[in-house]
Design a protein that fits this description.
The protein has helices at about 45-50, 80-85, 100-110, 115-130, 135, 150-160, 180-195, 205-210, 230-235, 240-245, and strands at about 5-15, 15-30, 30-35, 60-70, 70, 85-90, 170, 200, 215-220, 225-230. It is of the alpha/beta class. The protein has a domain at about 5-95 and about 170-245: 3-Layer(aba) Sandwich (Rossmann fold). The strands form 2 sheets. Strands 6-7-8-3-9-10 form a 6-stranded mixed β-sheet, with helices on both faces. Strands 2-1-4-5 form a 4-stranded antiparallel β-sheet, covered by helices on one side. Strand 7, helix 7 and strand 8 form a beta-alpha-beta unit. Helix 3 (about 100-110) packs parallel to helix 6, helix 4 (about 115-130) packs across helix 6 (about 150-160) and helix 6 (about 150-160) runs parallel beside helix 7. It is globular and about 55 Å long. The two termini are about 30 Å apart. Bound molecules: adenosine-5'-triphosphate. Adenosine-5'-triphosphate binds next to strand 2 and helix 1. Adenosine-5'-triphosphate binds near residues 37, 39, 41, 42 and 45. One of its GO terms (biological process) is phosphate ion transmembrane transport.
């Protein structure tokens, strides 16, 4: 399977605090990769290095390489705006803009220069369809995004991320604020999306990783302890620390 993201010798410091320690990881294309591990082990930090969201945090220092399709995203000539178009992100709390449903989805394409109404209409419909939301909102596109339920808002945020046609979608605990039915919908949607996108997700919920991911990476104290096929990691972990974590002995 083709590797789309290669992380090599990655170190990340928040000031004096060493948050990621020599991370080496290959992430395959059109797969769901889940990051699991106890609170504070560096899962979200690593996720944020993949679209340079840590750049906005003061005092962060990064060493090592992250390459996406062979290009080092920390090279000085990387256009961060373009990188974030290719690597979209969905957060823990649904965060639609205080705009209409339509304008939320059209926001990114407009920013990237799409102005024709017919083109925007097509992109909005296609993105909402991909996020399994079209049928619920097609007659109320002018309504405020804030009028939607939490689960619908999160699918709208997924549609908004997809509207700029990314290759990679980062999901940071994207279901943890949702009820079980909305969670199931997003899990099913994530499985569908992987046919077209590479998905990297952080989850607190081991069962969720086991249910939907293809590969799982277990972190502890800023280090990768074990990374393998999800089925293997949960059935026959190699490292004792992985075994202790997945069997609920800590975390
Ligand atoms: N902006 C920041 N400044 C300083 N330290 C930070 C910052 N963000 C995270 N950290 C620290 O880095 C470590 C890793 O945090 P991170 O949020 O990546 O962990 P996590 O595994 O995603 O945790 P959780 O599951 O609780 O979200 C933690 O010790 C955290 O306190």
């Amino acid at each position: 399977m083709a590797v789309i993201i290669e992380i090599e010798r990655l170190q990340l410091y928040y000031g004096a605090f060493h948050a990621l320690k020599n991370v080496n990881l290959s992430i395959p294309e059109n797969n769901i990769t889940a990051f699991i591990g106890p609170s504070g082990c560096g899962k979200s930090t690593l996720l944020r290095t993949l679209n340079r969201m840590n750049d906005t945090i003061q005092g962060v220092r990064i060493e090592g390489d992250v390459t996406i399709q062979g290009r080092n995203i920390y090279a000085s000539d990387t256009e961060v705006e373009f990188l974030r178009k290719r690597v979209g992100m969905v957060f823990q709390q649904p965060n639609p803009f205080p705009k209409s449903i339509y304008d939320n989805v059209a926001y990114g394409p407009r920013l990237h220069g799409v102005t024709k109404k017919a083109d925007l209409d097509a992109l909005v419909e296609q993105s909402l369809r991909s996020a399994s939301l079209w049928h619920e909102v097609k007659d109320v596109l002018k309504k405020s995004a804030w009028s939607l339920s939490g689960g619908q808002q999160q699918r709208l945020c997924i549609a908004r991320a997809l509207a700029v046609e990314p290759e990679i979608l980062l999901m940071d605990e994207s279901t943890s604020a949702l009820d079980p039915i909305s969670t199931t919908k997003i899990e099913e949607l994530t499985r569908e999306l992987r046919q077209k996108y590479t998905i990297v997700m952080v989850t607190h919920n081991m069962h969720q990783a086991a249910r939907i991911s293809d590969r799982t990476v277990f972190f502890l104290n800023g280090e990768v302890v074990e990374a393998s096929e999800t089925e293997t990691l949960f059935r026959a972990p190699v490292d004792q620390r992985t075994e202790d974590y997945i069997s609920g002995r800590f975390g």
